[in-house]
Amino acid sequence: MMIRIVIAEDQGMLLGALSSLLNMEDDMEVVGRAKNGEEAVRLVNELKPDICIMDIEMPVKTGLDAAEELNGKTDCKIIILTTFARPGYFDRARKAGVRGYLLKDSPIEELVNAIRVIMEGRRIYAPELVDIVYDEESENPLTERESQVLELVAEGKTTKEIAAELYLSTGTVRNYISTILDKLGVGNRIEAISRFKEKGWNK
């Protein structure tokens, strides 16, 4: 049986190389190539492949957003192939029903093997990621409201603008911000934003 594959990757050279390498396998055929998450969702719905290999950082729609959108709506099994060994990303991927999560520096044989194993109904996660998840607390420590405040800070809004948007007093917003800095263990707003994004907690 031929395994039909869609690849979503915004780096053209890598997209071409991956397609060529997988097409060399007797039981695999790359039927579609996408440059962003939105194209990936469209191709999966149109072509109904067995497997979709997805990068995370892509324009228009990230691989994680695409995986979340497809979750439960398709029989296509999703494999995330990324350079990012981040617990927050991995956590989101698992919740989105992703069957495989591999790092781009893995040898091609590992990806080929993972595709076959996933087709048998199993899941494959890079060992480095599983270690990180157990080493670090990957849950977002912020409450929903604190996350909301930090998202607005990340958009460049001032304390006054955030207060107006969330119907709070400026004093309350300042309290939220100091709680956020404490919880994330950082010294200022810029560090808080980068820690939040690095962990993959921003939706």
TrEMBL record:
By its UniProt entry, which Pfam families does this protein fall under? GerE (PF00196), Response_reg (PF00072)
- Domain of life here? Bacteria
Entry's SUPFAM superfamilies?
Answer: C-terminal effector domain of the bipartite response regulators, CheY-like
- Where in this chain does the record put each Response regulatory domain? 4-119
- PROSITE patterns listed in its UniProt record: HTH_LUXR_2, RESPONSE_REGULATORY
Q: Where is the HTH luxR-type domain?
A: 135-200
Residues bearing 4-aspartylphosphate are D55
Q: Name one GO molecular function term.
A: DNA binding
Q: Which GO terms describe its biological process?
A: phosphorelay signal transduction system; regulation of DNA-templated transcription
* SMART domains on file: HTH_LUXR, REC
Q: Does the keyword DNA-binding apply?
A: yes
What InterPro entries does its record include?
CheY-like_superfamily (IPR011006), Sig_transdc_resp-reg_C-effctor (IPR016032), Sig_transdc_resp-reg_receiver (IPR001789), Tscrpt_reg_LuxR_C (IPR000792), WalR-like (IPR039420), WH-like_DNA-bd_sf (IPR036388)
Q: Which UniProt keywords apply?
A: DNA-binding, Phosphoprotein, Transcription, Transcription regulation, Two-component regulatory system
List the protein's name. Answer: Two-component system response regulator DesR
